[in-house]
């Protein structure tokens, strides 16, 4: 079994952070989004990974090589983005007809991965949503088999959304259907969709079973990212690195504070994740994500997302600041 993780997207909804950092490397609850995905798959004994990279792909490559030197990793560059179907097709020669587990690069979910891996069927992860029109949608029969999938339907016939988890056993079949989309120029919203390829497989006789995820953490936009950060910190409790220096400061759990951080006359938490080597002085920070090598001085931050190598001085309430930024409210 090989894992495929598409992380070539530009992350437009998380700008300005994704101008300088891939969305998959944005920190959440003390880890990157990508690490949550890779660690979960590796815990299920997957040791070979294919990363589809594009925008700022070298940063993903460097991060993976440094963090996971023990894994077998391939990097495929998607220089032009034509959809998830196009991205997956680029992995054909590396997949070589092996079974794959595809996880979209902004998908953090709670589910029984070992049970999914043990199933004799191909599997699609789903979760009930209030408004399925912005998702891929699965129609499911009484026995849990998927009978039809469609991308962002205007009139959904199901409220079961595809969450971005796909275990595919018949990969030769997958690449045949992708080729069919390309030859017939079948696009959805101007892109070659993995959902369309899966529906092609179902129509041609492939059997997919659905599995429900317990939780689905949305990391696509600032507000939902902060909400997911808070939920994951509550669940896992957060960590404070032993090297953190805290002088005359109060820490309200749960928080995650990385190595080399210095806190002086600060109140941190709850629901705060801070990267490595960041300094916070005379400040109050809650419900926020702060990057690495950042300096905060005399600020009050609530529901804020601050990038790495940033400097913020003065008084503020809610910010969304990218990397390498300097702001003085004095």
From TrEMBL:
Transmembrane segments: none annotated. One of its GO terms (molecular function) is transferase activity. The keyword Magnesium does not apply. Keywords: Transferase. Pfam families: NTP_transferase (PF00483). Residues 2-234 form the Nucleotidyl transferase domain. Gene3D superfamilies: Hexapeptide repeat proteins (2.160.10.10), Spore Coat Polysaccharide Biosynthesis Protein SpsA, Chain A (3.90.550.10). CDD domains: NTP_transferase. The keyword rRNA-binding does not apply. InterPro entries: NTP_transferase_dom (IPR005835), Nucleotide-diphossugar_trans (IPR029044). This is NTP transferase domain-containing protein. The lineage of its organism: Bacteria, Pseudomonadati, Bacteroidota, Chitinophagia, Chitinophagales.
């Amino acid at each position: 079994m090989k894992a495929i993780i598409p992380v070539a997207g530009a992350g437009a909804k998380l700008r300005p952070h994704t101008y300088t950092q891939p969305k998959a490397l944005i920190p959440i609850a003390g880890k990157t989004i990508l690490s949550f995905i890779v660690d979960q798959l590796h815990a299920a004994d997957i040791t070979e990974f294919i990363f589809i990279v594009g925008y700022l792909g070298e940063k993903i490559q460097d991060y993976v090589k440094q963090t996971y030197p023990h894994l077998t990793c391939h990097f495929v560059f998607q220089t032009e983005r034509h959809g998830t179907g196009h991205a997956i097709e680029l992995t054909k020669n590396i997949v070589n007809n092996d079974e794959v587990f595809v996880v979209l690069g902004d998908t953090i979910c709670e589910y029984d991965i070992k049970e999914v891996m043990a199933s004799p069927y191909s599997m699609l992860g789903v979760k009930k949503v209030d408004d399925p029109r912005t998702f891929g949608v699965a129609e499911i029969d009484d026995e849990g088999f998927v009978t039809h999938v469609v991308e962002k339907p205007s009139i959904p016939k199901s409220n079961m959304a595809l969450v971005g988890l796909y275990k595919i056993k018949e990969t030769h079949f997958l690449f045949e259907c992708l080729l069919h989309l390309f030859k017939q120029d079948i696009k959805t919203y101007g892109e070659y969709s993995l959902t369309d390829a899966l529906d092609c497989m179902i129509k041609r006789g492939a059997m997919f079973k659905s599995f429900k995820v317990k939780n689905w953490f949305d990391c696509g936009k600032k507000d939902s990212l902060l909400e997911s950060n808070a939920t994951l910190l509550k669940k896992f409790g957060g960590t404070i690195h032993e090297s953190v220096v805290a002088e005359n400061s109060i820490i309200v759990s749960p928080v995650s504070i990385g190595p080399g951080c210095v806190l002086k006359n600060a109140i941190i938490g709850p629901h705060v994740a801070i990267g490595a080597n960041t300094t916070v002085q005379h400040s109050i920070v809650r419900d926020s994500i702060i990057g690495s090598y950042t300096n905060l001085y005399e600020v009050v931050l609530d529901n804020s997302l601050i990038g790495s190598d940033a400097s913020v001085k003065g008084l503020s309430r809610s910010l969304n600041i990218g990397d390498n930024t300097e702001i003085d409210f004095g």
